[in-house]
Design brief:
The chain is α/β, with parallel strands linked by helices and 457 residues long. The protein folds into two domains: 29-362, Alkaline Phosphatase, subunit A; 373-447, Arylsulfatase, C-terminal domain (2-Layer Sandwich), CATH 3.30.1120. It is built from twelve helices and 18 strands. The strands form four sheets. It has a ten-stranded mixed sheet with strand order 9-8-5-4-10-1-11-12-2-13, with helices on both faces. Helix 5 (191-209) packs parallel to helix 7 and helix 6 (230-239) packs across helix 7 (245-271). The protein is globular, with a radius of gyration of 22 Å.
């Protein structure tokens, strides 16, 4: 079904040439899609949020020139599940990725396997003429059949695994996971600079080739180890001498990341692509407290089901379609990017996805309330998890939390208590019972999809 954006262009073309109809050269150009995903960036770790010790002019530019999301949430508090949600439009446990994928370097501690039968966003966009590329971190599998070019991407240049042990050597457990498509590569340089350069090269190539594209630019910054280039750290130390060494390193790494995002935005401008490109910016989960991330006023951080682990920055820019400097209170999840990309491209998403199109919010239109539930999950090993899951479920103002598989359920009213300080589980037994039943239903849905490799796959 053609969306409103394409309908408006078709109508304009028919009005300007009513007798001739619409020829091939007057067909509307489908919008390009650029999704920029950072890694462990806290909700408050950019200067447009009001954080005073950090300078991120290019991230701020997206908020200034587009719409900022006051309530953007990752689908999980850790990496792999949120990335699976983005590319499938589904709750991650429904596609076999409830936790962090760590094969092959740590198969005994790997908690996901991307379901082979699920169609990823690049495959869905392909019939509409989209060329798709992933630059940066994949983290949804390191072996066949779960590598990017086997799952629909036309081009991949980046890192297959979960985290780099070093931003300069790009190894994980002494193994090299850097690839160009299926080719093993060993480039020199800081990972952020490499991903930025490769993204700019891709945009330049698409400007020459023509046709719509989907670029998924997934940085691994500011994930630990926190290793900013020395000159960026020196700038921060000179400007903010009172910062702790740990916080200074994180600020420098994010500012260096922001500089790379600026180069990508400049490339869009220079190539003439910016006017027809929807840019969506967010992070895969909240910031790591041990790295002194800023998650705003919310409780906790990465790895936890409290608001600080799930709330992430969110912005979108689309010249001529999004009011500059606007904001939306719409509660949005990572998986909603999938449905929105389909709506913008004019393609029908696969049946049964969980994500909801937020195109109306981008264009400033009111949205009807659907009574939607918000479900978050993480499976993990070790003594603190034992291979079990932690979850959160939100319905209206009420949020049910199980932040440890061995702890009682917690219940919070986020309207009255946004910082999750007053557990209402004993005071509101009826609501606790209702949300607990809803949570069990979500867990049962996710349990239908195996999260380990099987012979069938």
């Amino acid at each position: 079904m053609i969306n409103r954006y394409l309908q408006s262009i078709l109508l304009a073309a028919s009005v300007s040439c009513p007798m001739a109809g619409i020829s091939a050269d007057t067909q509307p150009r489908k919008p390009n899609l650029l999704v920029i995903l950072t890694d462990d960036q806290g909700r408050g770790d950019y200067s447009a949020f009001g954080t005073r010790d950090i300078r991120t002019p290019h991230i701020d530019r997206l908020f200034r020139e587009g719409v900022g999301f006051n309530n953007f949430f990752a689908n999980s508090c850790v990496c792999s599940p949120s990335r699976a949600a983005l590319l499938t439009g589904c709750h991650p446990d429904r596609v076999g990725v409830p936790g962090v994928i760590r094969e092959p370097f740590s198969p005994e501690d790997s908690w996901g396997w991307l379901a082979r039968e699920v169609r990823l966003l690049p495959e869905v966009l392909k019939p509409a003429g989209y060329h798709s590329a992933l630059v940066g971190k994949w983290h949804l599998g390191t072996v066949s059949p779960n590598t990017p070019t086997e799952r629909g991407f036309d081009f991949f240049q980046g890192f297959l695994a979960d985290m780099m042990d070093d931003y300069w050597t790009h190894r994980r457990a002494k193994l090299n996971f850097m690839r160009r498509n299926q080719e093993v590569i060993d480039p020199a340089g800081h990972a952020t600079d490499l991903f930025t350069g490769w993204a700019c090269e891709y945009l330049e190539e698409r400007a020459r080739a023509g046709g719509p594209f989907f670029l998924y630019l997934a940085y691994n910054a500011p994930h630990d180890p926190v290793q900013p280039p020395a000159d960026w750290l020196e700038k921060v130390n000179q400007r903010e001498p009172k910062l702790s060494p740990k916080r200074a390193r994180l600020v420098a790494l994010i500012e260096h990341l922001d500089h790379g995002i600026g180069k990508v935005l400049d490339t869009l401008d220079r190539t003439g692509l910016a006017a027809n490109t929807l840019v969506i910016f967010t992070s895969d989960n909240g910031g790591l407290l041990n790295a002194e991330a800023n998650n705003g006023p919310w409780r906790s951080g990465k790895g936890h089901m409290y608001e600080g682990g799930l709330r992430v920055p969110g912005a979108a820019r689309w010249p001529g379609h999004i009011q500059p400097g606007s904001v939306t209170d719409r509660m949005t999840l990572t998986m909603d990017i999938f449905a929105t990309a389909c709506a913008v491209a004019g393609v029908t998403p696969p049946p049964g996805i969980d994500g909801v199109d937020f195109l109306p919010a981008l264009q400033g239109e009111p949205e009807s309330r659907t009574g939607r539930e918000y479900y978050f999950v993480r499976r993990e090993g070790g003594a603190n998890f034992g291979g079990k899951t932690i979850e959160a479920l939100r319905r209206g103002d009420w949020k049910l939390v199980q932040d440890s598989p061995f702890a009682p359920l917690e219940l919070y009213n986020l309207k009255a208590d946004p910082k999750e300080t007053a557990n209402q589980a004993l005071l509101e037994p009826a609501i606790l019972k209702e949300l607990s039943a809803a949570l069990r239903q979500q867990i049962q849905r996710g349990g239908r999809s195996p999260w380990q490799a099987t012979e069938k796959r």
